[in-house]
Amino acid sequence: MRPDAIYDRPDLYDRIVTPGPCEPFYRGLAAETGGPVLELACGTGRLTIPLAADGHEVVGVDLSPAMLDAAAGKARRAGAKVAFVCGDMERFALGRRFRLVLVSCNSLAHLRSNAAVLSCLARIRDHLAPGGRLAFDVVQPDLRALAACAGRGGRPARTWLPPGAPAVEERTTYDPVEQVRVSHWSLCRPDGSREPLRRLALRQFFPNEIPLLLGAAGLRLVARYGDFEGNPLGPGSANQVCVAAAGAG
């Protein structure tokens, strides 16, 4: 899996993406399972550093050296001890097992093919300690929004960052055959100049797919929620928050 250009801009990434309500959920789960904890696609350490501050042994894996450099700097400033590893979540091999493996903030959606998803899940299974858990969250597909941006041209949108910072202009398209939503990002600076940031392509996981994909990789769904408060998954849920374990369902 190759990193999108936005992941070479950790300063911009931290302005756009925040841990939000997922942080208490994952910290609470880690308190239940204990460490060691592995986070895949750890980015700039938004979860790894708080988990380490909670006293857990934490390893963070990410494909982007720039993101890992930013994460290491943040960890040093926070006095948190985290082992950061540059690696691909489809192919990582750490030679050890973990009580908890996390893939947060819709990061699994970067794996756009079934083969890529199954490769990642199989690697996770092989890194789970006996009784260990996998926890991840993915977006619940919004059919109306996807229909609005399907076809040629897509749907334009603009997200403004804090005053004086570049704005991010986004145009979104959706391929219903591949189940991939693509956001085309550009930086719009206050002086009027623009910098393309390529595209961000994310798979859409429909609810019935998840147990099948987990089962094909030797995992089973233990729990699934519609938000980080533990409410049931329903038609209006924005997220699918999943907990899985090794073994047949």
Structure described in brief:
It comes from Propylenella binzhouense. With 249 residues, the chain is α/β, with parallel strands linked by helices.
Please provide a written account of the structure.
This is Class I SAM-dependent methyltransferase. The protein is an alpha/beta fold and 249 residues long. It folds into 2 domains: 5-141 and 205-246, Vaccinia Virus protein VP39 (Rossmann fold, 3-Layer(aba) Sandwich); 143-203. The protein is built from 7 helices and 11 strands. The strands form 2 sheets. The chain has a 7-stranded mixed sheet with strand order 3-2-1-4-5-11-10, sandwiched between helices. The chain has a 4-stranded antiparallel sheet with strand order 6-7-8-9. Helix 5 links the parallel strand 4 (98-103) and strand 5 (128-139). The mean pLDDT is 87.
Secondary-structure blueprint:
Elements: H1 10-16, H2 22-33, E1 37-40, H3 48-53, E2 58-62, H4 65-78, E3 83-86, E4 98-103, H5 114-127, E5 128-139, H6 143-149, E6 155-159, E7 167-175, E8 180-188, E9 194-203, H7 209-216, E10 219-225, E11 239-246
Parallel strand pairs: 1-2, 1-4, 2-3, 4-5
Antiparallel strand pairs: 5-11, 6-7, 7-8, 8-9, 10-11
